[in-house]
Design goal:
Elements (H helix, E strand, L loop, with lengths): L3 E8 L3 E3 L14 H10 L6 H7 L8 E7 H9 L10 E5 L11 E4 L3 H10 L4 E6 L1 H7 L5 E7 L7 E2 L10 E8 L5 E7 L3
Parallel strand pairs: 1-6, 1-7, 3-4, 3-6, 4-5
Antiparallel strand pairs: 2-8, 7-10, 9-10
């Protein structure tokens, strides 16, 4: 069965963006060591523009589907990137986006839990939950793995990693990796049984 991985960057205090959707400050940590590690470990999460820059081809190694909320999709769309991950099957989960601006992107307005359960039953590679907090909150019960890139910033306020009701769930630590830029990548697997 396919798995759903929430692969996301956050601040030390657990925000994926500022209160006005600001995330550019987290891009300042992108150095050669960190980018090389991301390309090596998670090449399928590199966007179209990034793939060209680092010489990645169209083939996927571990992931073949990406899910994102409208707020996650919007920054690329605002600069003309209508299909940010053309090497993946792309879903934008939105009740407010009426139609897809690109034939390679499916806008889905239904229940994201049902969508993920259906995708998990299909043959294929992994499914990547790209963001955001509201979608992650809705899909929290379906997330099999968390890969959290903890950036060396404290934001104080912003969009949390998850936007959901209080309901603690236990995950098991699979690994950590730290970088010279101060980022710590932590991988967790949902505890089963």
């Amino acid at each position: 069965m396919r798995t759903l991985t929430y692969f996301i960057a956050t601040t030390i205090d657990g925000f994926i963006a500022g209160p006005g959707d600001e995330f550019g400050f987290m891009m300042s940590v992108l150095d050669d060591e960190y980018v090389s590690a991301l390309v090596e470990s998670y090449p399928d999460t590199v966007s179209a523009r990034g793939r060209e820059a680092v010489g990645l081809g169209p083939d996927n190694r571990d992931i073949d589907t990406v899910l994102m909320g409208r707020n996650t999709y919007e920054p690329g769309l605002s600069v003309g990137m209508t299909s940010p991950y053309p090497h993946l099957r792309q879903y934008v989960i939105s009740k407010s986006l009426a139609a897809s601006p690109d034939p390679a992107v499916t806008v889905f307005s239904g229940d994201p839990v049902e969508l993920v359960r259906g995708l998990k039953q299909e043959e294929g590679k992994g499914i990547w939950l790209c963001g955001g907090a509201n979608l992650a909150g809705q899909l929290r019960g379906e997330i099999d793995e968390l890969v959290v890139k903890v950036n060396p910033f404290v934001a104080g306020k912003g969009i949390p990693l998850f936007s959901a009701e209080f309901s603690p769930e236990r995950y098991d630590l699979k690994g950590t990796r730290s970088f010279g830029n101060g980022v710590v990548m932590v991988t967790y697997a949902k505890r089963t049984g």
